[in-house]
From TrEMBL:
SUPFAM superfamilies: Acid phosphatase/Vanadium-dependent haloperoxidase. It comes from the Bacteria. It comes from Erwinia aeris. It catalyses: di-trans,octa-cis-undecaprenyl diphosphate + H2O = di-trans,octa-cis-undecaprenyl phosphate + phosphate + H(+). The lineage of its organism: Bacteria, Pseudomonadati, Pseudomonadota, Gammaproteobacteria, Enterobacterales. This is undecaprenyl-diphosphate phosphatase. The chain crosses the membrane at residues 20-47, 59-77, 104-122, 129-147, 153-174.
Length: 201
């Protein structure tokens, strides 16, 4: 498996002969495309058609549970079974500055794939597909730039799937109560902008 991991990495990884524009594009995708996650979470909670705000907020909370689960497990795996990044062992070429932290599973991959699977399961299939495409672009870019292995991204995808399953089970037992409590806190903290009509109640 490790041999396959290294072979795939070297096949995807950029080289000094790679065009500068492609390195720049990959850098933009690797660093900035992940911001779609917090932007969508905030937008779905604060705004939207009045008839859909309730379902949007259920989606946000389910996704938040899945992300919390995924990142916790990711941290545990990285702490208990550390795996060096490609540049740490001197393999391939690195074009993106990064600390020499544990590589498996990729936090970027874990976040975007969890988000994509959540939207596919609890929102619309097309939105999940679009986010999955964004996830694949992020996965490619971070391997291409030499800071992750292909298996790091596969690990993030599998962890995203498992975490969404955990979130669905958790929601079955305490989701309604959680939504009620967080909505009450939100109305208290955002009373002024709600009253002004800047955000939904």
């Amino acid at each position: 498996m490790e041999a396959l991991n290294r072979s795939l990495f070297l096949w995807i990884n950029a080289t000094p002969d790679t065009p500068a524009w492609l390195i720049s594009l990959a850098t933009l995708v690797a660093r900035d495309l992940i911001t779609i996650v917090p932007v969508l979470i905030v937008a779905l909670w604060l705004w939207g058609p009045r008839s859909q705000v309730g379902s949007q907020r259920r989606l946000v909370l389910k996704t938040a549970i899945a992300l919390a689960c995924a990142l916790t497990v990711s941290w545990l795996i990285g702490s208990l079974y550390p795996h060096p990044r490609p540049f740490v062992i001197g393999l391939g070429h690195q074009f993106l500055a990064h600390d020499a932290t544990e590589s498996y599973p990729s936090n970027h991959g874990t976040i975007i794939f969890t988000f994509a699977i959540a939207f596919f399961c609890w929102h619309r299939a097309w939105s999940g597909v679009v986010l999955l495409a964004a996830g694949l672009a992020i996965a490619w870019s971070r391997i291409f730039l030499g800071v992750h292995w292909p298996m790091d991204m596969l690990g993030g995808l599998l962890l995203g799937m498992l975490s969404c399953l955990v979130a669905q089970v958790t929601w079955h037992f305490c989701g309604r109560r959680l939504l009620h409590n967080i909505s009450s806190l939100y109305r208290l903290l955002f009373a002024f902008p709600i009253r002004k009509g800047w955000v939904r109640e």
